[in-house]
Write a sequence for this structure.
């Protein structure tokens, strides 16, 4: 039991013993093996839901924990069942009581929250969010992301997610892809239809994403906001006053002038603007650097926000226009990652790694 206490449920972030998933252990002598006493071991495991998507991982980790027992040859057999409705209800009630509502707004929370905003659509805000989240995860941070762009959700596609969150008696488990825990309205049935929601319902959707999803205690939470300064940006500021705003723009004035407005929302709400990211800054073509969308937009936004807000708002990164960002994103893999899920050794990945480290500094 002590060794099984080190086996962590990947979704709930607690040991299988604390969660009551070990229903029993039977040990029977089986002679000797190489001079060591041998035993047949049966572990009865109760998973939270039938067909738990991580059951193979949990069973494998339990088997490895048993095999690590010293001075004995243990032949494990794992019997897998599902918790009764009453036991699951008690578990969920305990988790909810412990967490209460909106775990990210309570005092002393360790999670760094970054809201990714833009003045207009089409500047690559969602691809920046996806690649930044994947970078944080690849650097070893426990990372979560909320697709708060209810009308134009795109994170499920950028991460290759086609499954739905697991529902534990009304508590949702986020879908994990490329090391990032994700939730999006695009993961639910009917999300392919046009969504016509107004302010109050938008705010409730964000509150549900925060309070009805079991996030654990991530190091980083990213929110992909809708473009502009509408209801969701205000809801984020009211619900997550400790969030830091990152403004994404492209170099041309038509985008950068509008991007300033997204940052100036901090004059009306308690949210600090952390910095500016300029996307599609240039395109390298056979050794020639082409500034297709002009230049200087990111620095203009940073300078204007610094003057208006009264604190330093730096230009934190300039990202090139790369076909592979689109190609890999459409294939469901953030462009900063290799096929093995690790950071690729590319200039783009290095730029995002530098941005992530600067944000956490």
């Amino acid at each position: 039991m002590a060794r099984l206490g080190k086996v962590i449920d990947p979704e709930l972030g607690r040991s299988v013993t604390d969660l009551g998933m070990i229903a029993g252990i039977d040990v029977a002598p089986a002679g000797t093996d190489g001079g060591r006493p041998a035993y047949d071991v049966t572990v009865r495991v109760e998973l939270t839901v039938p067909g738990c998507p991580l059951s193979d991982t949990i069973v494998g980790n339990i088997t490895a924990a048993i095999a690590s027992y010293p001075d004995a040859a243990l032949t494990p057999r794992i019997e897998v069942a599902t918790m009764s409705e009453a036991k699951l209800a008690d578990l969920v009630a305990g988790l909810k009581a412990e967490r209460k509502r909106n775990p990210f707004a309570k005092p002393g929370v360790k999670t760094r929250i970054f809201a990714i905003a833009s003045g207009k659509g089409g500047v690559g805000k969602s691809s920046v969010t996806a690649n930044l989240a994947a970078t944080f995860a690849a650097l070893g941070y426990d990372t979560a992301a909320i697709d708060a762009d209810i009308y134009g959700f795109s994170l499920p596609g950028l991460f290759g997610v086609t499954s739905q969150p697991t529902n534990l008696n009304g508590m949702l488990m986020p879908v994990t892809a490329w090391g990032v825990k994700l939730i999006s309205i695009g993961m639910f049935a009917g999300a392919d239809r046009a969504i016509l929601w107004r302010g109050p319902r938008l705010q409730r959707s964000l509150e549900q994403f925060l309070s009805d999803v079991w996030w654990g205690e991530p190091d980083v939470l990213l929110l992909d906001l809708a473009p502009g300064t509408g209801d969701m940006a205000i809801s984020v500021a009211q619900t997550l006053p400790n969030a830091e705003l990152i403004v994404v723009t492209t170099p041309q004035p038509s985008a950068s002038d509008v991007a300033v407005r997204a940052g100036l929302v901090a004059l009306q709400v308690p949210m600090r603007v952390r910095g500016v990211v300029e996307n599609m800054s240039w395109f390298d073509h056979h050794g020639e650097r082409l500034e297709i969308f002009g230049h200087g937009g990111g620095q203009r936004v940073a300078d204007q926000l610094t003057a208006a807000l009264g604190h330093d708002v730096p230009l934190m990164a300039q990202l090139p226009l790369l076909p592979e960002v689109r190609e890999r994103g459409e294939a469901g893999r953030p462009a900063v990652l290799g096929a093995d899920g690790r950071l690729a050794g590319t200039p783009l990945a290095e730029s995002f790694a530098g941005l992530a480290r600067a944000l956490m500094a």
